[in-house]
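[Automated response] Your request has been received and processed.

Submitted sequence:
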Amino acid sequence: MIKKHIVLISLFGIFSSASFAQSAPDGYPPLNPESCTSIMVGKNASADGSVITSHTCDSNYRTWVDVVAAMTYDRDTTTTIWSGRMHTEYVEGRRGMEVKGTIPEVSSTYRFLDTSYPCLNEVQLGMGETTITGRRALVNKNGMFMIEELQRIALQRCSTARQAITLMGELIEKYGYGDWGECLTIADKNEVWHFEVFGEGPDKIGGVWAAVRIPDDHVGVSANIPRISTIDLKDKDNCMASKNVFEVAKKMGFWDGKKPFRFWEAYGGPNYSGKLKSFSIREYFILNKLAPSLNLSYDAEELPLSVKPENKVSVTDVMALLSETYEGTEYDPLKNLKVEVKDRTTGKTDSITSPAAHPWMNSDLKKLINTVKPGTIENNRLVAVPQCAYSTVIQLRNWLPDAVGGIVWLSLDNPAQSPRIPVFCGTTDLPACFDICGQHHYREDSALWSFRRANKLATIRWGATKEMFEKAINHFTEKGQTELPFVEKRYMEILEKDGEEKALEFLTGYTSDFAGAAIQKWEEMGDDIFCTYGRSF
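Generated structure:
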């Protein structure tokens, strides 16, 4: 009976999205766990000594990506601070943008990779991001800086995570923070920090923030929920905070000054599930997978900000964690969507996951299935989601020159279905298809749709297409890792023989060639799916 229902229901699930909203407690904004996931890895926790941070940008943000050149200014000048940069259609686009103000420019700036949330500069300073929302009462839209503009300015001016945190704190205090609660996971080639910031409330243009250093032998996770707990301002090597970090909580009635102060509790309040706890499914799943012997409890009020992994974590491990759909675990959304199949040779029957089922079924389809049989699909927020705009895994290596030592492993669309393309600190340009956002229209000249078209088509018969996609992703993952030593060696040879300009041209060309091969493969797979299943959509 269930088999018949699933076949019928599959007709309704052609293009799907896993987005869903949670109701919020009184006094809080509507919360939506669409946003982002970030994983941080200290240099002694990583397999090769890299420092790693990462980001899945899981909502309708721009997908154009640009390399902004370093600049030198002979005279005093200013730079404009904007809002609305995350939804423009072109690199040069200004529609929807608003000038928030200006600040003095510095005499020289670093080159940086301008993703919707800017992520890496030329001297191996990298950033991931997750929106942590917080209490509505903290928001003050009169503050000059949105989080993405703080990132941009810090990447243009700073070379270390500590410098970036210090500068952002100064800018917040002087000009004000105008965004909802945000977390940045800020890394350089030696260390990684977890930074959380909120507004200061309607009566004060400013902000309140705290930052905690992830131990070198630990891995941390941020996933749309404030995570920082107690802070020790005497431990300057591992903790930083705004001067008003306790004062604001007292003034606004979020902390009585008597019980132990927990940053997440004071400024964040309940998480997106409406529970007073500092984590949800993603943080729990990832930390528990990396350190199972800790026996972390999902019923706890808070989990540690970071854990020591039981095995060293490679950059490809982080890629895999950001591709998680909890397959084969108790949280697997497909665990109850089984059908019987009969082996034509032996006549034996077996139970398999329905080929029509996939982890990213939209809310309407889930509701329909759960109406047929209540409780069939549990609504757990996956790490990899179909509404993802882009994802970065940022690898920083202190034993190599900055130009080749820092890499953004970039994917567009669902990170569980798309390959990762290496963009180096020394990459100075990207193919023209990366100049155009694919969120506004279906555009075949936008890099996003080369991947999104194939990815969405594949979900029509994920049981039949999954292996093809896994094989293609594994190919490009292996290609990136096995060719990396050659790229490093060749860069050094060109640098020594022909100079920096030619060496950077080599890195730029390698990124372009890699992207071209990945785009061609995904376009071919999209065509193949149309041809194979075009008569039975």
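Summary generated for your ticket: The longest strand covers residues 126-133. The longest helix spans residues 462-498.
If you did not submit this request, please reply to this message.
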